[in-house]
Design goal:
With 432 residues, this protein is an alpha+beta fold. The chain folds into three domains: 146 residues, no CATH class; 168 residues, no CATH class; 68 residues. The N terminus is likely disordered. The radius of gyration is 30 Å and the shape is flat. A five-stranded mixed sheet has the order 6-5-4-3-7, with helices on one face. A hairpin with a 6-residue loop joins strand 4 and strand 5. The chain is 41% helix and 12% strand. InterPro entries: Endo/exonu/phosph_ase_sf. Keywords: Coiled coil.
């Protein structure tokens, strides 16, 4: 379930407003975008054939609210509609808190409405006429109880590695040995790919090959962390009792399993909370936050806020990438004049020593996000430093830097609660 209601009107701290979707697991894969525009409007976009589907969920102000709030809602909805592609299917769902009444109204409302039209109903009809939309549930007859919605008075492509396995000395030694063997078998000809790009690509390919073999997480089904072997054994006994149709024994085992699960979970939570308190006392904020998320099972991401550029909503992924690219280019634009290249007959200098490379690798921080090349610092540290030393000297001699090192991945971190523009984000660059 996705919900958008963090920002409330008039500093309302009761969080009374909020809209969201409940999505089945078999539909989740086709969801390509989820954008929250306010505490009353949210958009879910789905990939479909022959055309994509846009679902807009709204929660209109109730009758006791000012008409200006309802007009503002429809204005915001029109702004969302203008940002969508006209050939795609768009459906607006939710609670409109309006009565359009009985009787057909052009091609907008059918003959099977309910009751007498009110002011909010007039506003809804006017909105549908402007946006060329129809109120579908008024075109076929339903029981009046199913038409009545209100009363007038109402109160988230890169492979992830398990780097923690390198803490095991046996795994680290084995990886180092396999890296050495793989490098020797793939680089018999020293003159092959002697450019900085070629050398780095060979190093990267060898590292990724070994990382895939040793550090790829297992895809087995995740068990509850508090599950014990005794409970698993009881589950197997319960399964056998069900197969043999021993209903009384099955019921007794099932009751025992529930009791033990409850007790095991309680013991696990107590132990984890004590560990979190210990981390907090040590001022280890990173691991403390990680432990809290693990205990509370907070893994779902909030909806992506809408992004505006030059006053226009941007929803298409291609347009979003283009907008961020333009913003980054403007942000890092260099206004200085081009410097004339220096003329020097001898560019040679002292070679980079292997001891210098070893020291640099030693002081590299662990547990940092890798760049787009997916090479972790922990794996680089077990790689033979003489090959990296040769690479750095080739870069120094030729003046050419591998193309991978000239690229970076930007991570956007909001500066405020509801960012609407690129400038409302802080950019963090992930480099090699």
């Amino acid at each position: 379930m996705r919900r958008w209601g963090r920002e409330t009107r008039n500093s309302d701290l009761n969080h009374r407003n909020g809209v969201g979707f409940i999505v089945r697991n078999n539909i989740k894969k086709s969801t390509r975008n989820l954008v929250g525009f306010s505490d009353r409007i949210i958009l879910l976009q789905r990939n479909a054939s022959p055309t994509n589907i846009n679902l807009i969920q709204i929660y209109a102000p109730t009758a006791d609210k000012q008409d200006e709030e309802a007009e503002e809602l429809y204005g915001q909805t029109q702004e969302v509609l203008r940002s969508l592609k006209p050939h795609e299917i768009t459906i607006i769902l939710g609670d409109f808190n309006a009565k359009v009444g009985k009787g057909r109204v052009d091609d907008v409302a059918g003959a099977f409405g309910l009751g007498e039209r009110n002011g909010r109903g007039e506003l809804l009809l006017h909105f549908c006429k402007e946006e060329n939309m129809v109120i579908k549930n008024t075109f076929y007859k339903l029981h009046p109880q199913r038409l009545k919605l209100i009363s007038e008075k109402r109160t988230t492509t890169q492979r992830h590695y398990n780097i923690d396995r390198l803490r095991d000395p046996a795994v680290a030694d084995r990886m180092k040995f396999e890296l050495t063997e793989l490098w020797a078998s793939n680089n018999n000809n020293p003159g092959l790919n002697d450019s900085p790009d070629g050398i780095w690509n060979n190093i990267k390919q060898n590292i990724l090959t070994i990382s895939n073999a040793f550090l790829t997480p297992t895809t087995t089904k995740k068990n509850k962390p508090w599950m014990t072997n005794e409970i698993r054994s009881l589950m197997e006994d319960r399964r056998i009792a069900k197969v043999e149709q021993q209903q009384q024994r099955y019921t007794e085992i099932n009751k025992t399993i529930k009791q033990q699960c409850q007790q095991a979970k309680e013991n696990w939570v107590i132990a984890e909370c004590q560990e979190a308190e210990r981390m907090h006392a040590l001022h280890d904020s990173v691991n403390f936050q990680r432990k809290v998320k693990q205990i509370t099972d907070i893994t779902k991401k909030a909806p992506i806020p809408a992004l505006k550029h030059n006053g226009k909503l941007i929803l298409d992924p291609v347009d979003l990438c283009s907008t961020w690219k333009s913003y980054a280019q403007l942000l890092f634009e260099d206004q200085r004049e081009d410097r004339q290249p220096l003329n020097c007959e001898d560019w040679s200098g002292p070679e980079i020593l292997e001891s210098e490379v070893q020291h640099a690798m030693k002081v590299m921080k662990n547990r940092k996000s890798p760049g787009h090349d997916n090479v972790h610092a922990e794996v680089l540290k077990i790689f033979d430093s003489k090959h990296l030393t040769y690479l750095f000297n080739r870069i120094y001699d030729t003046g050419k830097i591998p193309n991978d090192w000239l690229k970076s991945t930007f991570i956007t971190i909001p500066k405020k609660v509801s960012p609407k523009d690129c400038s409302d984000y802080r950019l963090i660059s992930l480099m090699l």
